[in-house]
User: What shape does this take?
Amino acid sequence: MEEKKQLIPTAEAAKFLGLKVSYLHKLMMRRVIPYYKPNGKLCFFDKAELEAWQKNIRIASQTELDQQAQAYIVGREKGVSNGCDTGNHWQTASLRGGIRSRRNAPFLPDVQEGRGVFGEQV
Assistant: This one.
């Protein structure tokens, strides 16, 4: 037999999550939290989905971070790529035209000489 979803109103959902109703409304308007609007006016929430939403962003413990760092260092020493680009980001971005330095930027306006942005006469 299929279990029926337990839908709760907004005020009860805010109490369940430990939030103010106004903040829950803000999350709803930003479409951050899942909710149901069966009649087009009142909003309802599924408790199971609220619990899943609370658990969707997990912060790793320091031990887990240390293990990930150690695995990264060992992989890097062996020459194994962990999906991270170890190249010089500034150099590759500037080669693609993503970063402009003052040297390769168009001429800046020079009021004394009467020149425009691209060096043309004004």
